[in-house]
Amino acid sequence: MVALVGTALLAAPGVEAVDRVLRTEIEIAATPEEVWKAWTTPEGIATFFAPVGKVDLRVDGTYDVWFNPTGEPGERGAEGMRILDVDPARRFVFTWNAPPNIPKIRGRRTVVVLDLAPLPGGRTRLRFTHAGWAEGTDWDRAYDYFDHAWNAVVLPRLRRRFEMGPLDWSQVPALPPVAPTLKVSLVEGAAPGGAR
Questions:
Q1: What angle (nearest 5°) sits at the alpha carbon of residue 38, between those of residues 175 and 133?
Q2: Residue 31: which H helix or E strand, with range?
Q3: Which single residue of 11, 84, 169, 190 has CA 20 to 30 Å from 19?
Q4: What tens digit of pLDDT does each residue of 57-72 get?
């Protein structure tokens, strides 16, 4: 298991942490408290992230985000994720898994860290980090998948939610990505995507 502690990655014995993360910073037209509620409540999740969310907001509580609420168990989305850190309106950390179309690693977990900071004018700076990637073809596929999913789907929808109101799940708009890529190597001088 790979876990994020502070800014360092720690790997359990026998598991090598890969020196890559998905990371970006964006500004959101809402206070940290409003952004916090969007990520940490079922009502907030439904405004931008997925039609259904289930949250037990405590360390080691569950964090479920169902993109396909009518799907069979295991096919709904992020099911059975765990909350690792709760610092209201400042930091929210939770586990994440690969999508159902990458079944070999779906039972494994990565870590998402949301750091919120107030900005003038009632705005928020969100530093988004997704870490804990292992090596192999399936992990590379998941890394590419989430580079797109966070960058061109979830984070743009979060921004839009506070600029134009909650998302209408019957008419989901295509939005531009927040950055060209979220891929970052933790090895100085390495190419994006973990290449050395």
A1: 70
A2: none
A3: 84
A4: 999 999 999 999 998 9
Whole-model pTM?
0.87
**How many helices (H) and strands (E) are present in the chain, helices listed first?**
4, 10
**CATH code of the domain containing 91:** 3.30.530.20
Full residue range of the structural domain in which residue 77 is found: 27-146
Separation in Å, CA 41 to CA 32, 53, 54, 58, 195: 14, 7, 7, 12, 37
In-domain check, residue 172: no
Structural domain contains residue 17: no
Count of domains in the chain?
1
CA 80 → CA 77, 118, 155, distances in Å?
10, 30, 22
**Residue type at position 179:** A
CA–CA distances in Å: residue 30 to residues 38, 79, 82, 164: 10, 28, 26, 12
- Is the CB of residue 190 less than 8 Å from the CB of residue 17? no
In a domain, 119, yes or no: yes
